[in-house]
Structure to design on (834 residues):
């Protein structure tokens, strides 16, 4: 078997794998990226494109802040238009959950300590500031420097830049086995090619379970598909990204409008997804309930038409938190997966942190809470 | 046993004959129609307060239109006919529809898709100006609104509809500047053996040409469309084309009707899980249909939505599909009739292959389009942008090229630009057209109002 060697093998060409590859190359480390399909074609390419920091657990904010600084200059450093729009983000609560006013205020004070500044608006002030909200919207937390980007183009732009900088990027190449032999990982693909490297990064999203299991670690990722839609274009009137905070899945929609006018909506009830077919099909019932919630959040959107729905295969961990960092059981093995529908914003930050870990053995960004240890412990 | 619940989508020639056959067997099918009245595109009925005769409306096709309409009228009390209803999604044996603005979910035991066809369009520099219509659009204006698309009209493209609509406009008194056909006289001659499978239809076609010539409207064969000139404010003002000797000509006009034969409307079939194969003859993707007219379990297809064979074949196909469905449902069916319809259908198929040969899709013209021509009108994506996205970003598959360039992402979801876009990608990346693939359908089949009542 033909074997190619490099310093690092990255499995998975979504935003995590592509960013990790990009930043490894910036440090002069040789890297091979293996993608079973096309770069950025699965969850990364079908996601919403949110650049949202607020609302994440406080423990994620240092990483999200680091990522945010990278997003601000990513388009320029890639030399590609990835449509980063830092036009703000508003999290809202409805009037049937008045406790959210206090929750949002409390969160804002904690977030400020990490460097993320938020403004909380209620009542008349909120509706004057954001006149498109429906009457049920009670409270909004505004993050002025968050925003959105175009998820269809980001991962592939990162991989292209990495490739131009010397990374070996292989598409349509699925991993059939991954082992450690002596000091090196040996990865074999369905094309009959073998790859070896002293470091391996598992960034395979919903496909990460079996790779982790090959090294005696179990994450228990479940595949689900977001319910997405896009409307016909309308005058650009919603500048920030919007998201509803609620424990009710159906209510939990988010949306953004792009300058060319289309409104992109996600969230609400998710659909089943399959890693074997690589597809997630939107249940039309979920689209209908999403439309109800959309009319509630921004009533003016009722004048528009939906032109397309879609979904993708996302990987959700049992606790909804990602797996980032070193393996507990195998030296040289790293994880960047299980982002549970919330990975897009973290992509560049995660890529840089993993590259830093591999290069220097440490990182200043706290990632302890995302270790695979928490799942290993529960499965013994 | 409850009677099986059969849903027929479409009430054109295929849907009408299918529903009729089912109703006569004692079923009460639900017939879903996007339009306000039955007839489909080809036999679209005029609004109720309009009083034109069948001959004025449908010309050479008037007898068939009258029969399809009156037979549909005779079964109205035996079917559940739902007009102004958009079938926008299918999931797990349920059709999702928007019926006059209200959302309805219709479970079915069998779904028959008679979704018909729309234009296959080749972009031309300037086809995005106001005053450009598809041939079907031009026909709708005439039948439904009783008006012409302009006062001096160029018909450009290829296919039988080019001649049918031009002759209908002439009969209605409109001023037609010219009929410009990209196919050559040689194409027609080469197709003759197959066209002779249906001498009467060939005769009808020749009659259309005679009508056009009698009105002293020039018919030019073997043209290459170069540009539709005009302005954003005033719309179309002329068409420039190159003749087969290579000379450029400019024809003044205030409207252009465009179409290059037809493509099947396959979104519902796609959403219902039918598989598709690339058909080399027509260079289109068509649903894989078994000998019982099934594209998937419980999903049957008939008429031009299954494969472009024309309105007459669609009537046969609608009947045949209904009979095979009845057989599947355990009803007693006249098997001789199935056999007769199959053999008749095979003749239409041969004729349809002749039509495909006579009016070929002008591949070279599509592939040689200038960079500044718009390929996707909804999203204003130029041919050059599509070439750059597919070549520069290794997008040799159409859904990937769509993700990078926005081609096919707009209101029509690639129904009008998808075929041309695939040719451009194939050419730019030197990939066989079959490997470029087809745009995956996503709901909704047509734009769905967010305000849909539930």
């Amino acid at each position: 078997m033909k074997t190619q060697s490099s310093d690092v093998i990255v499995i998975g060409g979504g935003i995590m794998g592509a960013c990790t590859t990009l930043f490894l190359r910036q440090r002069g480390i040789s890297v091979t990226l293996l993608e079973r399909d096309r770069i950025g074609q699965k969850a990364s390419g079908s996601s919403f494109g949110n650049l949202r920091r607020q609302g994440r657990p406080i423990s994620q904010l240092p990483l999200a802040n680091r990522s945010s600084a990278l997003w601000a200059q990513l388009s320029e450093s890639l030399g590609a238009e990835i449509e980063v729009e830092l036009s703000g983000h508003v999290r809202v609560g409805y009037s049937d959950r008045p406790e959210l006013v206090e929750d949002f205020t409390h969160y804002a004070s904690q977030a400020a300590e990490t460097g993320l500044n938020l403004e909380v608006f209620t009542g008349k002030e909120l509706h004057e500031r954001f006149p498109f909200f429906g009457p049920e919207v009670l409270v909004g937390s505004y993050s002025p420097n968050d925003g959105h980007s175009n998820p269809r183009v980001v991962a592939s732009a990162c991989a292209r830049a990495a490739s131009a900088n010397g990374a070996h990027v292989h598409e349509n190449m699925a991993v059939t086995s991954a082992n450690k032999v002596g000091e090196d990982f040996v990865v074999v693909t369905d094309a009959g090619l073998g790859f070896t490297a002293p470091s391996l990064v598992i960034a395979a999203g919903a496909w990460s379970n079996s790779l982790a299991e090959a090294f005696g670690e179990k994450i228990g990722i479940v595949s689900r598909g977001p319910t997405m839609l896009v409307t016909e274009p309308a005058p650009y009137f919603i500048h920030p990204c919007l998201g509803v905070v609620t424990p009710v899945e159906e209510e939990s929609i988010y949306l953004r409008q792009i300058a060319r006018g289309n409104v992109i909506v996600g969230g609400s009830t998710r659909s089943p997804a399959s890693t074997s077919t690589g597809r997630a099909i939107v249940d039309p019932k979920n689209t209908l309930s999403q439309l109800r919630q959309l009319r509630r959040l921004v009533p003016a959107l009722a004048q528009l038409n939906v032109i397309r729905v879609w979904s993708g295969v996302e990987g959700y961990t049992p606790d909804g938190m990602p797996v980032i960092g070193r393996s507990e059981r195998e030296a040289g093995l790293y994880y960047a997966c299980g982002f549970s529908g919330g990975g897009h914003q973290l992509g560049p930050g995660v890529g840089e942190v993993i590259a830093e870990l591999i290069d220097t053995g440490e990182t200043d960004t706290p990632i302890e809470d995302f270790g695979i240890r928490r799942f290993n412990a529960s499965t013994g | 046993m409850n009677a099986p619940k059969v849903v027929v989508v479409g009430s054109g020639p295929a849907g009408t004959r299918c529903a009729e056959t089912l109703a006569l067997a004692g079923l009460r099918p639900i017939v879903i129609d996007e339009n306000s009245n039955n007839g489909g595109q080809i036999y679209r009925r005029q609004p109720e307060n309009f009083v034109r005769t069948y001959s004025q409306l449908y010309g050479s096709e008037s007898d068939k239109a009258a029969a399809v309409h009156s037979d549909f009228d005779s079964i109205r009390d035996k079917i559940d006919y739902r007009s102004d209803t958009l079938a926008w999604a299918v999931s797990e044996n349920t059709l999702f529809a928007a019926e006059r603005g209200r959302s309805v979910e219709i479970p079915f035991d069998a779904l028959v898709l008679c979704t018909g066809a729309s234009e296959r369009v080749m972009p031309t520099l300037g086809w995005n100006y106001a005053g450009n219509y598809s041939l079907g659009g031009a026909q709708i204006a005439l039948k439904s609104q009783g008006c012409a698309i302009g006062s001096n009209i160029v018909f450009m493209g290829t296919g039988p509809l080019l001649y049918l609509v031009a002759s209908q406009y002439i009969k209605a008194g409109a001023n037609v500047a010219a009929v410009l056909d990209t196919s050559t006289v040689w194409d027609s001659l080469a197709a003759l053996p197959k066209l002779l499978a249906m001498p009467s239809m060939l005769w009808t076609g020749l009659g259309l040409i005679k009508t056009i010539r009698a009105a002293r409207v020039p018919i030019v064969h073997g043209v290459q469309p170069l540009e539709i000139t005009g302005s954003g404010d005033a719309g179309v003002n002329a068409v420039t084309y190159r003749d087969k000797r290579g000379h450029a000509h400019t024809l003044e006009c205030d409207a252009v009707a465009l179409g290059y034969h037809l493509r099947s409307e396959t979104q519902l079939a796609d959403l219902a899980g039918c598989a598709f194969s690339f058909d080399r003859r027509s260079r289109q993707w068509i649903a894989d249909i078994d000998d019982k007219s099934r594209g998937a379990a419980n999903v049957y297809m008939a008429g031009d939505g299954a494969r472009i064979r024309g309105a007459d074949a669609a009537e046969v196909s609608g009947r045949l599909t209904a009979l095979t469905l009845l057989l599947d449902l355990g009803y007693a069916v006249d098997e001789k009739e199935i056999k007769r319809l199959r053999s008749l259908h095979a003749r239409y198929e041969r004729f349809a292959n002749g039509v495909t040969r006579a009016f070929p899709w002008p591949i070279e013209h599509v592939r040689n389009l200038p960079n500044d021509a718009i390929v996707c009108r909804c999203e204003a994506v130029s041919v050059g942008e599509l070439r750059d996205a597919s070549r520069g970003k290794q997008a040799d598959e159409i859904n990937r090229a769509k993700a990078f360039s926005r081609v096919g992402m707009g209101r029509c979801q690639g129904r009008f630009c998808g075929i041309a876009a695939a040719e451009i990608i194939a050419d730019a990346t030197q990939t066989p057209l079959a490997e470029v693939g087809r745009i995956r359908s996503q709901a909704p089949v047509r734009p769905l109002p967010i305000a849909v009542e539930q």
Observations:
- Chain A has a mean pLDDT of 96.
